[in-house]
Structures are given as structure tokens and as C-alpha cells.
Amino acid sequence: MNLSVRTAEKRDVSKILEIVNYEIKNSTVIYDYEERTYDYQLDWYETKRRDDMPVLVAEKDEEVLGFGTFGIFRPWAAYKHSAEHSIYIHKDSRGLGIGKILMTELINAAEEKGFHTMIAGVDSSNESSIEFHKKFGFKEIGQFKEVGYKFDRWLDLTFLQLLL
């Protein structure tokens, strides 16, 4: 596969939005109910740029197949060395190793920016994502029971952590 990873540009926002909205509508990967608008996603992208946080896209033949990003874990000064990341792959591009490539790039970016740890919040039923993170050295730290509610059921959230 001729896959490349690059820093996202404004022109990628619509494809990122498509990926995000699919997950909102069809999965528990994102604990949200309402699809996002282009303006919302553009504001998200511009905030990431302003905060000097990476948004990376994986593409093949100029088609965005997935993206990854991170930001400060919580909005208080003492958390400034802790990053929470997200990786999303287009539904038709899963199982091709795109997530591995994006995760490697995000870990490298977090180290370069001087972060001490990376954190993942994963829906507890998403065993493949939990195992994916463990392959990169993430350790399961804990689980919050029934903190989300979507598709007429309570959702548990598992936190994983990688010390850089």
C-alpha cells in the first residue's frame, strides 16, 4: 500500500468530518449523539493548530483514509505534560495498518513535544482498540462504569496509559 502520513490541512476538514460523523451515528467510539457540522469541525481544526497540537492524516492517492490527533488531557496547568489522543479510520479502510502508522507518528510527536504520558479513553466493549493500544505498550489503568449512554444502553469507559 502506498500510504503517507502528513499534517492535516484545511482542505482535509470535510473528510475528517465524514469519518467523525459516521462514528457518531454508528458506533460507541465517540460518546456523542449529534452529527457535527462543517463549521464545528473547522473550529476544532483551527483550535488544534492554534494550540500547536498535531492533526495527522493518512492518505492513499490523495484520499484521506484516517486521522489522528492529541491534546492536553485536561484543561488545567498541571496536566500540561499529559496528552489524550484519538485515532479514527474510515470504515472502508480498517485492517490495513493505518492505525499503527498513525499511532507511531503520534507517539513520536508527543515525545518531540516533551509530553510525559499519553492517555486513551476507549469504550470498554471495543476490545480491538484496547488490544491495539496494548501492542504499543499502553497499560490498562482503570474503568469507569456506566459513564456514557448511547444506543439505549450504558457504556463503560476504559483508560489506558503509556509513559513516554
TrEMBL record:
<dbReference type="GO" id="GO:0016747">
    <property type="term" value="F:acyltransferase activity, transferring groups other than amino-acyl groups"/>
</dbReference>
<dbReference type="InterPro" id="IPR016181">
    <property type="entry name" value="Acyl_CoA_acyltransferase"/>
</dbReference>
<dbReference type="InterPro" id="IPR000182">
    <property type="entry name" value="GNAT_dom"/>
</dbReference>
<protein>
    <submittedName>
        <fullName>N-acetyltransferase</fullName>
    </submittedName>
</protein>
<dbReference type="Pfam" id="PF00583">
    <property type="entry name" value="Acetyltransf_1"/>
</dbReference>
<keyword id="KW-0012">Acyltransferase</keyword>
<feature type="domain" description="N-acetyltransferase">
    <location>
        <begin position="17"/>
        <end position="160"/>
    </location>
</feature>
<keyword id="KW-0808">Transferase</keyword>
